[in-house]
Write a structure and sequence with these properties.
Pfam families: CEP104-like_TOG. The protein is an all-alpha fold and about 150 residues long. The chain contains nine helices and no strands. The protein has helices at about 5-20, 25-40, 45-60, 65-80, 85-90, 95-100, 105-125, 125-135, 140-145.
Length: about 150
């Protein structure tokens, strides 16, 4: 194992830990740092993506719009970069994405729609995506149903 691989794993572990912090500012910084981390990598291993998805899942349900926006952008970047290699890990994001489809903030709703569409076309088979999105048609929030 190369030293750069080990430092990369350490950096990723620190980002994941910071994303689970109780401090909103630290979670926001962690999501931004994770975006920068992903953008600086030429190749992204599926194992690293799995760790990032685990960090993104709670961030998508965060009360801070900045954290949610960053998490949606990061998830979109992962989908674009990894495509169907992200499929086994992406299934855990459907429930938080559905909740964000009904967000009161239009910018978050739009990003959630973009993520759902890109996930359904690039990361998972369309039939699986439709099954995951089906509960949204009967959701209590009218924006989600829309």
């Amino acid at each position: 194992m190369e030293p750069s691989d080990q430092s990369s794993r350490d950096d990723l572990a620190e980002l994941v830990a910071a994303a689970q912090s109780k401090d909103v500012r630290e979670r926001c910084r962690a999501v931004q740092a994770a975006q920068e981390w992903v953008h600086t990598r030429e190749a992204l291993a599926p194992a690293a993506a799995a760790s990032l998805i685990e960090a993104i899942r709670p961030a998508l349900a965060d009360s801070s719009p900045k954290v949610v926006q960053g998490a949606l952008e990061l998830a979109g970047t992962l989908v674009e970069r990894l495509g169907d290699a992200l499929s086994p890990h992406f299934s855990g994001l459907w429930a938080p994405i559905l909740e964000r489809l009904g967000d009161a903030k239009p910018s978050l709703r739009e990003r959630a729609v973009e993520l759902a569409v890109s996930g359904a076309t690039l990361a998972v088979p369309t039939a699986e995506a439709l099954d995951a999105l089906r509960p949204g048609f009967e959701h209590r929030n009218w924006r989600t149903r829309e």
